[in-house]
Write a structure and sequence with these properties.
Elements: H1 21-39, H2 43-69, H3 75-94, H4 96-118, H5 142-160
Helix pairs in contact: 1-2, 2-3, 2-5, 3-4, 3-5
């Protein structure tokens, strides 16, 4: 089924990011990180960010790939995107050097928004906490895996017709 409102239309590169739960998890992540964690720091708000990020990031990555390549993600690529997301997440949650590197990448990605919102702000690495208990959130990767594989199978069937 397409992420767009008319499922009879063929999927287009990048439109899987429009699946209803992708923008919802991005919005929840932003609200959690900028409002809820400050009001109620703790286990629930800490794990909620990880769950949201793991749910939407593989879909965002696959959509970016589709837009660059102008082709829909294939079944093996769908699995690869989810596996790479899980491996990078595992590394950042267990290895201090990986956490620092990921914090630098996130800081770079966040800088344009912070600069527009707050004016001339310096480039600062995001805080990434090494916490092996966050690996308990890895099973949520089944959600983007299922969505991406279903989309890849649908597009493969349409191509073979």
């Amino acid at each position: 089924m397409s992420a767009r409102s008319n499922p009879s239309l063929p999927p287009r590169p990048g439109d899987v990011v429009l699946t209803w739960w992708v923008p919802a998890t991005i919005a929840l992540l932003v609200v959690n990180d900028h409002v809820l964690k400050a009001a109620w720091p703790g286990l629930v708000t800490g794990k909620l960010s990880d769950l949201c990020g793991l749910a939407f990031f593989p879909v965002l990555l696959a959509s970016a790939w589709e837009l660059v390549s102008r082709a829909l993600v294939r079944p093996r690529a769908a699995v690869a995107v989810v596996v790479v997301t899980g491996l990078v997440f595992t590394a950042t949650k267990t290895l201090p050097d990986a956490a620092h590197a990921w914090g630098s990448v996130l800081g770079l990605l966040q800088w344009p928004v912070r600069a527009l919102w707050h004016g001339g702000v310096p480039l600062v690495a995001a805080r990434v906490v090494v916490d092996p208990t966050d690996l308990l959130t890895l099973p949520v990767l089944w959600l983007p895996l299922a969505r991406l594989r279903a989309r890849a199978s649908l597009s493969a069937r349409r191509i073979s017709k």
